[in-house]
Specification:
Pfam families: DUF58. Keywords: Membrane, Transmembrane, Transmembrane helix. It comes from Halorientalis pallida. This is DUF58 domain-containing protein. By secondary structure, the chain is an alpha+beta fold. It has three domains: 47 residues; 94 residues, Immunoglobulins (Immunoglobulin-like), CATH 2.60.40.10; 107 residues, no CATH class. It is built from eight helices and 19 strands. The strands form five sheets. It has a six-stranded mixed β-sheet with strand order 16-15-14-17-18-19. The chain has a five-stranded antiparallel β-sheet with strand order 1-10-9-4-6. Helix 1 runs antiparallel to helix 2. The two termini are 13 Å apart.
């Protein structure tokens, strides 16, 4: 606990009043000294017994660069406080520095920037009294992760990708071939209700089209040289999402790990989560040899190896710039230039 510059002024007034009263006998000056001393005592007790606040928070919803998310943290306690959250360089934030009355829920907006898992927090909580005479700083802990997915690139116009996913041939959804058991992620429009109603096990079956029989799975092995993992992650995410939208069951292996083949929205999130966290390196040779597509990112760009043939993908080799201004707005605990007198601590 420390006094503020406002405290120095109050002490000066009280001390001066006492000295003048003692020297001149002017009792009226005590009317200034007594309230000042009482204010100092009450303020000191209020801040001293404020207690250490606790912070409860959750991770914001993951997203792609350029998207906005709301960060929320709940701070308990029972005093006036200034709550300042620590903002990492991978996001741009507004409103992360708030003056509140505890307990309170603090919300602010962030713009997702560079791919990765970025730690938000821990916050700094500066507790003060109603007069702003004393402050007490706490770092109660509590961090959240802002997960930024790789940026997606439209690969539908790429000849090699179109051939791989069947976009170069007409997809005739009227060319019904057979039925199969329902799998998570299959669209409801493909459910064959008449056949499903006849099954004794109550399981659903879906229509299988001729185009779906050509390929049902796609495995991707992605690797990158040092400094080019952003391009690799972007290419792998773009290809995987496009393949899942085409109805394929997709599996991805990268330096950060593996997501087995699957489909559906939950599987899509698992793939993007993995690619958001991956770094440079490459999968093991057996994985690369058995994959349908091998992606390699170097200083020259991203190369896709399909059926033994190398093809350059239209994905840039350089990572995106993190958001924020040039004066280092993001970093450790953010600083603000409009500090109130209640938070200007006396040094020394």
């Amino acid at each position: 606990m420390r006094p503020t510059w406002r405290t120095v002024g109050v002490v000066g007034v009280a001390g001066g009043s006492i000295l003048m009263a003692a020297a001149s006998g002017a009792r009226s000056l005590n009317a200034l000294a007594a309230p000042a001393l009482i204010a100092l005592l009450v303020s000191a007790v209020q801040v001293f017994y404020a207690g250490r606040p606790e912070v409860d928070r959750a991770d914001p919803v993951p997203g792609h660069p350029g998207e906005s998310r709301t960060v929320e943290l709940t701070v308990d306690g029972g005093a006036l406080a200034r709550v300042t959250d620590a903002v990492p360089p991978g996001v741009a934030a507004e409103g992360y520095d708030r003056r509140v009355t505890l307990p309170a829920t603090v919300e602010y907006e962030v713009e997702l920037g560079a791919r990765g898992a970025w730690d938000l927090g821990p916050p700094r909580v500066v507790v003060t009294d109603v007069l702003g005479l004393f402050v007490r700083s706490f770092e109660p802990g509590g961090t959240a992760t802002a997960l930024v997915y790789p940026p997606l690139v439209d690969l539908r116009e790429d000849d090699a990708v179109a051939s791989l996913l069947g976009y170069d041939t007409a997809t005739d959804r009227q060319a019904f071939d057979t039925i199969r058991e329902y799998a998570p992620g299959d669209p409801l429009r493909d459910v064959h209700w008449k056949s499903s109603a006849k099954r004794s096990d109550d399981d659903l079956v879906v229509k299988q089209f001729v185009s779906e029989q050509r390929e049902s799975t796609l495995t991707v092995a992605a690797g990158a040289a040092t400094g080019h993992d952003d391009a690799m992650a972007s290419a792998a995410a773009s290809l995987a999402v496009l393949a899942m939208e085409a109805g394929l069951s997709v599996g991805v292996t990268c330096p950060a790990g593996e997501v087995a083949t699957g489909r559906g929205e939950a599987h899509r999130r698992h793939v993007l989560d993995l690619l958001a966290r991956t770094g440079p390196g490459r999968p093991a040779r057996p994985v690369r040899e058995n994959a349908d597509v091998v992606l390699t990112a170097t200083e020259d760009g991203v190369t896709a190896t399909i059926d033994g043939q190398d093809h350059r993908l239209p994905v840039g080799p350089t990572p995106p710039e993190p958001p924020g201004d040039d004066d280092g707005q993001a970093g450790a605990t953010a600083e603000s230039g409009d500090e109130s007198p209640a938070e200007q601590e006396v040094s020394g």
